[in-house]
Amino acid sequence: MAEIYYRAKKLDGKIDRSTIYRVLDVLVELGIVNCSEDLNGNRVYELVKEQPHHHLVCKLCGEDTEIDNQVIEEFYQNLQTTYYYEVEMDHLIVFGVCPEC
């Protein structure tokens, strides 16, 4: 969020944080932007892609690896079969420790 605010502030010095939050909330509601949380609980925004995608993030070094959607689809199918939930998530972040760490 801070990065978005500072970039917008460069374009228009009068813009404030509340405007950025409101616009981001609308973009999330419209399905244009995904909102997730990082390890520190900060909101992370990302443009929605054509295909759902997911991330595997190292808690130690921050390495971010994109997870193939097919792997997650199988996981979602398993959840639906086992727990009878219809999963409605197209962006998942999984935290762990990478092989290098």
Characterization of the model:
The mean pLDDT is 91. 38% of the residues lie in helices and 26% in strands. A hairpin with a 5-residue loop joins strand 1 and strand 2. It contains three helices and five strands, in the order H-H-E-E-E-E-H-E. The chain is globular. It folds into two domains: 48 residues, Winged helix-like DNA-binding domain superfamily/Winged helix DNA-binding domain (Arc Repressor Mutant, subunit A, Orthogonal Bundle), CATH 1.10.10.10; 51 residues, Ferric-uptake regulator, C-terminal dimerisarion domain (Dna Ligase, domain 1), CATH 3.30.1490. It is α+β, with helices and mostly antiparallel strands.
In short:
The chain is of the alpha+beta class.
Question: Secondary-structure map with pairings?
Answer:
Elements: H1 2-11, H2 17-29, E1 33-37, E2 43-47, E3 53-58, E4 64-67, H3 69-83, E5 91-96
Parallel strand pairs: 3-5
Antiparallel strand pairs: 1-2, 3-4
The percent range for strand residues is 25-35%
How would the global form be characterised? Answer: globular
CATH level-4 homologous superfamily of the largest domain? Ferric-uptake regulator, C-terminal dimerisarion domain
Biggest β-sheet: count, sense, barrel? 3 strands, mixed
Task: Briefly note the structural class of the backbone.
Answer: alpha+beta
Please compute the radius of gyration using only Cα atoms: 16 Å
In spatial order, strands of the major sheet run: 4-3-5
Second-tier CATH architecture of the largest domain: 2-Layer Sandwich
CATH class of the largest domain: Alpha Beta
The number of E-state strands comes to 5
Distance between the termini: 27 Å
How would you spell out the order of helices and strands?
HHEEEEHE
Poorly predicted runs: none
Can you give the mean pLDDT? 91
Count of all domains: 2
Q: What's the helical proportion of residues?
A: 25-40%
The CATH topology name of the largest domain reads Dna Ligase, domain 1
